Amino acid sequence: MALLSTRMPDLTTTAESLNSTNSSDCPDSNAWDALYSNGPFYILLITVLGIVFNLFVLMVFCLHKKACTVAEIYLSNLAAADLLLVSCLPFWAVNFLNKFNWPFGLFLCKVVNMGIKMNVYCSIYFLVVVSIDRYVALVHTMSHGRLRRTKYAKLSVVLVWCFGFLLTIPGLVFRSIDYFPEHDVTACFLRYPSPSVGLFLDGLLVFLSFIIPMIIISFCTYKIIQALKNQPMERFNAEKTENKATVLILVVLLAFLICWVPFHLITTVDVFLRAAEVHGCDITTALDICNQIFTYLGFFNSVLNPILYVIVGKNFRKKIREVFRQFRQRKKAADSTRSHLSSTQKTTV
User: What is the spatial distance between Cα 2 and Cα 286, in angstroms, rounded to a whole number?
Assistant: First the structure.
């Protein structure tokens, strides 16, 4: 059943790959047995932890009495993108348990895959804008006061969500459900009008969702690290908040690269091999299995980010303490009000 695996993080493959390979020609690898056995439980664990952790992060940012900084606006939206991903993963787990039999209908076939794709596209572009923000703050310090306003950050967030949705449109348009008797499955898959259209769209998405963002992120990160090394100590001490935020963002960026770059690389290799018309069972099986493993690694990033906020983010830990202090103060005020009302009622009686 390896041919029914996905080469993108979206539960499906293309109609061409479903029809071009016969299961008797490409026998299952033993690695698929391990993936079928352990994959759904891993996905459900990621789902539970991701929902709890990312909801916690969003609650801290939303409930804190002070307005979010520019960096926090980007990080909170990154948490929202992670929450969107993990909310879609239970459908992936059921689909995987059914060995790619999709039981949820066409609407959820489109919507669930759109949600997963939105995370992939929006997450990397949130890191792009937050890298640009750090670059402006540390490298172009004279102009950062004008450019780093919260209204510009909110506008950037809206544009990222819109662009992420725009990149999911091909999947929404061409996603379909059909029965494949040779495999005895009803699969949720991408039915492109032709292999050339599919290759063009997949190549375009690789270019827009990986190559361009990585060029921007790499440039900004290099400049940021240079600026941190060259900062005079007195300036470093004067701008501790900025530098703490920068350290957290660099760690989050590193975690994203470790978790998602392998998936993007294997997807890029797949596109090039399809363009060169390189086929074969060994290559197909290796790509499909690597894609599944690297996709699972990418999912882990949605759980890892909130943990990094707590471990590395000193300002975030401070916000947590202040939010809990707010709750305690409100609870004391509520208890005092109830006690006062109770004593008033007794006196009246």
Answer: 10
pLDDT digits (tens, 9 = 90+) for 312-341: 888 888 888 888 888 787 777 766 666 666
Can you read off the two tokens belonging to residue 163?
A: 């662009």
**Is residue 128 within 8 Å of residue 65, measured between CB atoms?**
no
* d(C-alpha 128, C-alpha 122), whole Å: 10
Specify which residues 187 forms β-bridges with: 178
Residues 166-197: pLDDT tens digits?
A: 999 998 999 999 888 887 888 888 888 888 88
DSSP conformation class of 3: G
Cα torsion 309, 314, 318, 324: sign = positive
| pTM, full prediction | 0.84
Q: Give residues with Cβ within 8 angstroms of 330, minimum separation 6.
A: none
Q: Exposure pattern of 154-191 as b/e (b: 16+ CB <10 Å)?
A: eebbeebbeebeebbebbeebbbbeebeebebebbbbb
Token pair in block for residue 101:
């039999």
Render 201-247 in DSSP notation, one character per residue.
HHHHHHIIIIIHHHHHHHHHHHHHHHHHHH--HHHHHHTHHHHHHHH
